Amino acid sequence: DAGVIQSPRHEVTEMGQEVTLRCKPISGHNSLFWYRQTMMRGLELLIYFNNNVPIDDSGMPEDRFSAKMPNASFSTLKIQPSEPRDSAVYFCASSLYGARETQYFGPGTRLLVL
Amino acid sequence: DQQVKQNSPSLSVQEGRISILNCDYTNSMFDYFLWYKKYPAEGPTFLISISSIKDKNEDGRFTVFLNKSAKHLSLHIVPSQPGDSAVYFCAADASNFGNEKLTFGTGTRLTIIP
Q1: Is B98 an interface residue toward A (CB < 8 Å)?
Q2: A8 in helix, strand or coil?
Q3: What is the DSSP string of A44-82?
Q4: Vertex A62, ends A57 and A64: CA angle to 5°?
Q5: What is the dihedral of CA A22, A26, A29, A32, to 10 degrees?
Q6: Nearest Cα residue to A69 out of A7, A14, A24
Q7: B38-84 pLDDT tens trace
Q8: Chain A contact for B102 (CB, 8 A cutoff)
Q9: Does A103 touch chain B if contact means CB atoms closer than 8 Å?
Q10: Are B102 and A44 an interchain contact pair (Cβ–Cβ within 8 Å)?
Q11: B6 touches B106 (CB < 8 A)
Q12: Minimal Cα–Cα distance from B85 to chain A, Å?
């Protein structure tokens, strides 16, 4: 299996622009997680899905962030409008089911908002 | 409020010696703990876990110890090898029927000196 695939790997954008991050989980995995990594706060869970249904989005910082999972093989995290404080590395991870099963992380998207 | 704390941002250890990484938590509801390891430009990978019903779990060179009364866990690596140089994240989860999610610390960068 190719593992969790994320695109793009790097994104540089200007403040106010829309940013869309994409994730393809491992086939057969039923849970998908979006995390954000910063120096100050480490890895923070933004939202997670079980069987394509959002279970907990309490980590989404504000209404500018939204996530969708239209099917079992694709998810997006959108930031609109983006702000410099959104600059971070965003990881997608998947597991067979749930947070306690081994989560397999993608390589991350490094986002820089100018 | 950081519920999982890794107070040492970095640690350097001589090759062959023991590496001890520490993690403290504040939420007494946490009952499952994990360590993830991260190399530069890659996503984190699962290393080892422990349930609160145990106080020790061992996997090869890696051992995790849990002290529930002190709300403290540690990861021991012995002997340390150059390939162990990475950032180590401690994570915790509280049973919450159908809503398990990991809370991560900020990470400790381990450098093994040859």
Answers
A1: yes
A2: coil
A3: EEEEEEETTEEEE-TT--STTEEEEEEETTEEEEEESS-
A4: 105
A5: -30
A6: A24
A7: 999 999 999 999 999 999 999 999 999 999 999 999 999 999 999 99
A8: yes
A9: yes
A10: no
A11: yes
A12: 18
